[in-house]
Design a protein that fits this description.
With 533 residues, this protein is α+β, with helices and mostly antiparallel strands. It is built from 16 helices and 23 strands. Helix 4 crosses helix 5 and helix 10 runs antiparallel to helix 12.
Length: 533
């Protein structure tokens, strides 16, 4: 059965029982009202927000760990854990002072030495952190609340790097945890954020839970995205894994869950008819589909093979496979930057426009030296858009005459496998589709456009030309200079095919009407959210 016909068959589930109800302990009505239950977009299979850049881990991390700075709803960087900062007149020395009374979940104070250790671990895995490290002279704790970062040359967008929303975020951990090898996962989850991680309740593949941290001191400002006062009203937040959309829809209508992060497009009309459910687009910056290619191994270590995919793929086909036929919910994207954002440009995007050219793509593939070897394409089956795009990708590869070895897996397996540098036939990979937040493409900070050769998620892409244009943007001093750099970056990144943009689209979220305080933003923000019985 064609996938969209299969999905539409869910639309008649109505309020059918959600797989017999959720297996949960009996709790009082009062306790239930103090617990918010979310079905997130993926399972929290691992929990180290530095070791992986997976959004699900970043989103959970925002509850448990705090950041030095945070991006607000206007895309401005605001102080978070930092009370004040000072930059020397030559732009080389940054001095940061922490807010007083910051405390970790184990009762220990947050000290500057914890921040220094955390920055070092983050910088080993984050492209922006790696860049700053190349121009670092020293990073030291001056006293318990002050640390100093001395550079060899100015870095104008330091605060964006420390407060960016794109993963991995610069989360602050106790020094003893932050000193863990950044290429190995941490095993202790102690932060200073508004929620504690309830490790004893964590069942990968099923659920995870967070409990309000009574000693958290929010900032005095109003909360806005990752900035301001993160005031948690509920006592407990639970994330329930439900890869079956019909089950999630039924659970929401039966009030067995309170919030569904991403409602399946085909089920939105049914949910709108429910008198107990609110359906809305929370994130107006939308999302960007991406096809990531492994740049280390043939055939996609050759730019001609990567260009063959751009020449042949139809963004419309990818978008319709998941989003559907409502043209207001998606658009083609002949570039990388988010449509409607200040840096949006189509310069260099001709390869993605017009009728698709299979014959030209086949010629490029032949020129790259492809000789029929198996192409290992992996796609997460527990995330609907990944599954849909995996099917489209496999069909595209076959149309190009490629030998496809399709690896259907869960998202946790894809996340783990994409870190492997093994040859594709020995546990590595060639391709996988994924979805990214539009906010990550407002600035050139998405890990998928980085080309330093050190980023696993985009197949270790390496291009000095791309990195040069990214650096030009970070060094730009005016909006006009930033736009010029972005146009050049878009063109060279498409020519190199750092990754393949699959199109831009909007998604619906859904929650019960007794849940209040749900705010606009790229992912669920729990600050200010409350629930009536």
């Amino acid at each position: 059965m064609h996938r969209r016909a299969f999905l539409k068959s869910f639309a008649g589930v109505g309020t059918v029982a959600a797989a017999g109800g959720l297996a949960t302990p009996a709790i009082s009505q009062r306790a239930a009202a103090r617990t918010v239950r979310l079905v997130p977009h993926a399972d929290l299979a691992n929990f180290d927000p530095i070791w992986t850049s997976a959004y699900i881990v970043r989103n959970a991390g925002l509850l448990v760990w705090d950041t030095l700075y945070g991006v607000d709803g206007n895309l401005n960087v605001q102080r978070q854990m930092v009370e004040a900062e000072e930059l020397s007149s030559d732009g080389l020395t940054w001095a940061f002072r922490l807010r007083p009374d910051l405390k970790f979940h184990d009762g220990e104070p947050v000290l500057a030495k914890d921040v220094v250790a955390s920055i070092n671990r983050w910088a080993a895995r984050d492209p922006l952190g790696q860049t700053i490290k190349t121009i670092e002279q020293e990073l030291v704790a001056v006293d318990d609340r002050t640390f100093r970062w001395v550079l060899k040359q100015p870095y104008p967008k330091m605060l964006l790097a420390l407060g960016k929303i794109s993963s991995p975020c610069c989360f602050v951990m106790p020094a003893r945890i932050a000193e863990t090898d950044p290429f190995k996962q941490i095993t202790e989850y102690v932060g200073s954020g508004p929620m504690r991680f309830a490790r004893s309740d964590w069942v990968p593949g099923s659920r995870s839970a967070f409990e309000r941290f009574a000693d958290y001191v929010p900032r005095p400002e109003e909360a806005s995205w990752m900035a301001g006062g993160k005031r948690i009203i509920t006592d407990r937040i639970e994330w329930i894994t439900m890869p079956d959309p019909a089950t999630a829809a039924a659970a929401l209508q039966n009030r067995e869950i309170d919030w569904w992060e991403f409602a399946l497009p085909d089920l939105v009309p049914m949910l709108r008819k429910s008198r107990n459910v609110v359906v809305d687009i929370q994130d107006r910056l939308g999302n960007v589909g991406v096809l990531s290619m492994n740049h280390l191994f043939p055939p996609f270590n050759d730019a001609r093979a990567r260009r063959a995919l751009l020449t042949a793929l139809s963004q419309e086909e990818y978008m319709r496979a998941y989003v559907g036929d409502d043209a207001k919910m998606w658009k083609a994207q002949p570039g990388y930057f988010t449509p409607g954002s200040a840096l949006y440009t189509e310069q260099g995007g001709e390869i993605l426009k017009g009728p698709r050219k299979l014959d030209a793509a086949k010629r490029l593939l032949a020129e790259s030296g492809y000789a029929g070897d198996a192409i290992f394409c992996m796609a997460a089956q527990d995330i609907p858009q990944h599954k849909a795009w995996g099917d489209v990708t496999a069909d595209l590869l076959k149309q190009l005459g490629m030998n496809v070895d399709f690896a259907a897996a869960d998202w946790g397996t894809v996340v783990a496998r994409r870190t492997q540098k093994n040859p594709p036939a020995k546990g590595g990979w060639h391709l996988y589709p994924t979805s990214t937040y539009g906010v990550d493409w407002v600035f050139p900070i998405s890990p998928f456009i980085q080309a330093s050769g050190s980023v696993a998620v985009n197949g270790w892409a390496k291009s000095p030309a791309v990195e040069g244009e990214i650096a030009a943007w970070f060094n730009a001093n005016t909006p006009d200079d930033e736009r010029v750099a972005a146009r050049r970056l878009n063109e060279v990144a498409l020519n190199e095919v750092v990754c393949a943009p699959l199109g831009w689209y909007l998604r619906h979220s859904a929650w019960t009407k007794n849940l209040t305080g749900v705010s606009q933003g790229p992912f669920p923000f729990f600050w200010g959210v409350s629930k009536s019985s």
